Amino acid sequence: MQQITAPELADWLADEARPSPFLLDVRENWEYETCHIAGSTLMPMNTIPARIDDLDEEAAIVCICHHGARSMQVAAFLEHNGFGKVINLTGGVHAWAVQVDSTMPKY
User: Fold this and answer.
1) Domain of residue 73, residue span
2) Is 107 within the bounds of a domain?
3) Which Gene3D superfamilies did the record assign (predicted)?
4) Is 35 annotated in the active site?
5) List of long-range contacts for 68-76, beta carbons under 8 Å, 24+ apart
6) pLDDT for residue 4
7) Contact, 107 vs 35, CB < 8 A?
8) At 31, which helix (H) or strand (E)?
């Protein structure tokens, strides 16, 4: 699995010449409601096995959580199930709030 930093992801999302990745937020509803990266899709970690068919195996998927641990587990699960372009956001939304968007709430 690949890793990406918050600034690297911000650059990717800002690059109109590059197709945007699917942003998969695996946190709980209340966490997502507190803060999230624009354009991300909420799919709590415990729902991934039942919803795996909702994901595109060919798409670049960036897994996101609070600090990067849960998303790393989901990324490993997706890789194990045949997804080839899985990327973990190192440091999660906390890193995004600290390094990219200082207006994002932290928790």
Assistant:
1) 2-100
2) no
3) Rhodanese-like domain
4) no
5) 68/92, 68/95, 70/26, 70/27, 70/45, 71/24, 71/26, 72/1, 73/45, 74/24, 74/26, 74/45, 74/48, 75/1, 76/1
6) 98
7) yes
8) helix 29-34
- Position 25 confidence tier, pLDDT thresholds 50, 70, 90: very high
Per annotation, catalytic residue among 24, 63, 65, 86 = 65
Task: Tell me how many domains the chain contains.
Answer: 1
- 39 SS3 class: coil
pLDDT in tens, 34-90: 999 999 999 999 999 999 999 999 999 999 999 999 999 999 999 999 999 999 999
CATH assignment of the domain containing 76? 3.40.250.10
- Given this model, what pLDDT does residue 23 score? 98
